[in-house]
Design a protein that fits this description.
- The complex is a heterodimer of chains A (320) and B (95).
- Chain A contains one helix and 25 strands.
- Chain A is mainly beta and 320 residues long.
- In chain A, the strands form six sheets. Chain A has a six-stranded mixed beta sheet with strand order 1-2-3-25-24-23, with no helix packed on it.
- In chain A, a hairpin with a 4-residue loop joins β7 and β8.
- Chain B has one domain.
- A four-stranded antiparallel beta sheet of chain B has the order 2-3-1-4, sandwiched between helices.
- Chain B is elongated, with a radius of gyration of 16 Å.
- Classes of the chains: A mainly beta (320), B alpha+beta (95).
- Chains A and B meet through β3 and β25 of A and α1, β2, α3 and α4 of B.
């Protein structure tokens, strides 16, 4: 029979009391007081956050769980509303320059970029920058698109796929701080997908109208196939990085489906309490402490916010 | 004993349900402020603490059905362009 030393390369340490809960995830030790083996694992769950100022769907979010930004969407009808989140409540409304549905973005709460969309009609090429207090129009996208995805920062943004008319172009454009240039085209066009990461290390997953388990990774010039999602998704959201991503939401029919990516493979995570599609997320924040808000729960729209957290928890190892 | 209890309660936002709540009992929001809650002591206490109104499964299903029917009627009245981009709401059967 193999020993722990043979399997892991080190002996099991013994402690009279449990070490700090922040002890490395997956570590195993023997508690000599309780005569039990123990380990530290991350336990994930969604909790409710402050409600968004309006019920809205087909909009976008950037930032983190404690410094988020949401903008535009349909309520129904295109809106020009944006609001900042501080970890417990959404602040006063600031108006982007245009009303837009299915826009995308990148950046942070105080340095954001918004681009594309529709209202409805021809897809927009509009680009706007947010500085924490107001939105300012910038040079436009090369091709108008809605239901596209974003990644990166305000000064180094990425516009991925989307729809133009009835088709889904595989176009990718990179923002350099003042203007857009062509990036590496997608293997196949995505729309209403989830995405996160940076301009040179992005990931996009799912697509509409045919939900898919496919994900694709971008290195700044070309796309390669990523890990396969546990379930086909569309009209979903993303947060995190290319090697630590979170997917949340799916539909129709709306579900609270959540899964996480480690750069190689996807794994299921606990579902949201409110099933929803066409939601927004803190797309540029870490996946282990992210949030989602708004969306379509199957009928109409919601203003519900949920916060996703992984907490290190000490557990006793049993044989059952 | 049934797996779930049902009730209506308005989501008031932050801390309406907590990380620990989600570890303690199943919780799912449905149209019409309907909540499907794991049938244990902590789930029942949560509904009471949120000023929720307990419903039978049939009552909860009727609320959800009415919401979906209204959403379908609204969808039926939308433009063809909207319909090509948004699927008609479908019935939800509570667990």
């Amino acid at each position: 029979m193999s020993t722990y030393k043979q399997l892991v390369g080190k002996y099991v340490k013994s402690y009279s009391s449990d070490p700090s809960v922040s002890y490395a995830e997956g570590e195993l030790w023997y508690n000599t007081s309780s005569n039990t083996f123990k380990t530290s694992v991350l336990v994930y769950a969604w909790a409710s956050g402050g409600n968004y100022p309006i019920s809205v769907r087909e909009f976008y979010g950037v930032g983190t769980q404690t410094a988020g930004l949401g903008f535009n969407g349909t309520s129904p009808g295109g809106t020009n509303i944006s609001s900042e989140y501080n970890g417990s409540s959404w602040g006063s409304v600031v108006n982007p320059g245009i009303s837009a549905i299915a826009r995308a973005g990148s950046g942070t709460q105080t340095a954001a970029l918004a681009f594309g969309g529709e209202n409805p009609g021809p897809a927009f090429t509009s680009t706007e920058e947010y500085n924490g207090s107001s939105w300012t129009a910038q040079n436009t996208l090369g091709s108008g698109r809605y239901a596209l995805n974003g990644a990166g920062t305000q000064g180094a943004g990425l516009a991925i796929g989307g729809r133009s008319g009835g088709s889904s172009p595989a176009a990718v454009e990179e923002y350099g701080g003042t203007s857009w240039t062509s990036g590496g085209g997608q293997p196949s066009g995505t729309s209403y997908a989830g995405s996160c990461g940076t301009q040179t290390a992005a990931i996009v997953f799912g697509s509409a109208p045919s939900a898919t388990t496919a994900s694709y990774e971008y290195d700044g010039s070309s796309w390669t196939t990523g890990g396969v999602l546990p379930t086909s998704v569309q009209r979903t959201s993303g947060a995190g990085t290319q090697t630590a991503a979170l997917q949340a939401g799916n539909g129709p029919p709306a579900t609270g489906l959540t899964s996480a990516y480690d750069g190689t493979s996807w794994a299921a995570r606990p579902s949201m309490a409110t099933a929803r599609q066409n939601l927004a997320s803190s797309a540029t924040g870490p996946s282990s402490a992210s949030m989602v808000f708004g969306g379509n729960p199957g009928s109409g729209t919601t203003n519900a916010t949920e916060e996703f957290t992984g907490t290190a928890t000490i557990q006793t190892v049993t044989t059952s | 004993m049934s797996l779930f209890i049902y009730g209506t309660a308005a989501n008031t936002g932050k801390d309406f349900f907590t990380y620990q709540d989600r570890l303690d009992f199943y919780l799912s929001s449905q149209p019409g402020n309907v909540w499907v809650i794991g049938n244990n002591e902590k789930g029942a206490v949560w509904l009471a603490n949120k000023n929720g109104i307990a419903k039978t499964k049939a009552e909860a299903q009727a609320i959800v059905d009415a919401e979906i029917t209204a959403a379908q009627t609204e969808w039926d009245a939308t433009s063809d362009e909207f319909k090509t981009k948004n699927e008609r709401p479908t019935q939800i059967t509570l667990p």
